[in-house]
Amino acid sequence: MLYCLILIFIDEFYLKEHDVVYTADRIGLFFMFSVILILTVRALYGSVQEKNELIQEIHHRVRNNLQVISGLVEMHSGSGKENLQIILSDFQNRILAISEVHNYLYKSENYFEIDFVEVMDKIILNLSHRLGKRSIKIETEAESTFLRIENAIPCAMIFNELLSNSLKHAFSSDMGKIVIRFHKEGNKYRLQIEDNGSGISDSKTWLKPKTSGFKLIQLLTRQIKGDFQILSDSGSIAVLEFNA
Questions:
Q1: pTM for the complete prediction?
Q2: What's the CATH superfamily of 83-243?
Q3: pLDDT higher than 50, residue 21
Q4: Is pLDDT of 77 > 80?
Q5: Which of 15, 87, 100, 211 is the most buried (most CB within 10 A)?
Q6: Considering only CA atoms, which of 77, 85, 97 is closest in space to residue 154?
Q7: Where do the domains of the chain lie?
């Protein structure tokens, strides 16, 4: 850059006869292009840095998801072979819950946050169809709410477990109602799933879980440092709260 500036001075003052205004214009033009060049280089450097960070984030997510899948396989490995069909169906639904989060990210320009309500809607459609419970009425009371990816996947899996549990066990017939609420209260998120089914005889059973579903809920709740409880009153109410 300094070399170019020296050439301009030599050209203007020693090789040609131009007035001061013309020379100033040439120098001004040079500085303008220099500034554009500097800004372009900085923008390209920032883009490279952003892509490197994104690649690292993708590797981190893949590793975490593989760990989750490995944990699910280990959790199911101790189950009896007589329930193999049910086990495989539950395992597939859990994987699909994870995939819905990544499907949202794939279609979005935001790689770090997701609109969790959209993911919930996809999980609702998937479970209603796969479990053959489309006659059960499901209402959602939630507005567009964004979650960071590190909370979105555990929360999606917990939601999948709770909704699946209500659809499979809450109702003696194919008729019933489930109300889902999700919103942010101050610095906390609150997910609530309420059904008007038969309820749970012991609402504290999840504290010492015996089923893979409640074990998974307990594990994931700890992962996001949340609080989980089940209430039984003319049905069951499951509540998950965690910090933003």
A1: 0.72
A2: Histidine kinase-like ATPase, C-terminal domain (3.30.565.10)
A3: no
A4: no
A5: 100
A6: 97
A7: 1-78, 83-243
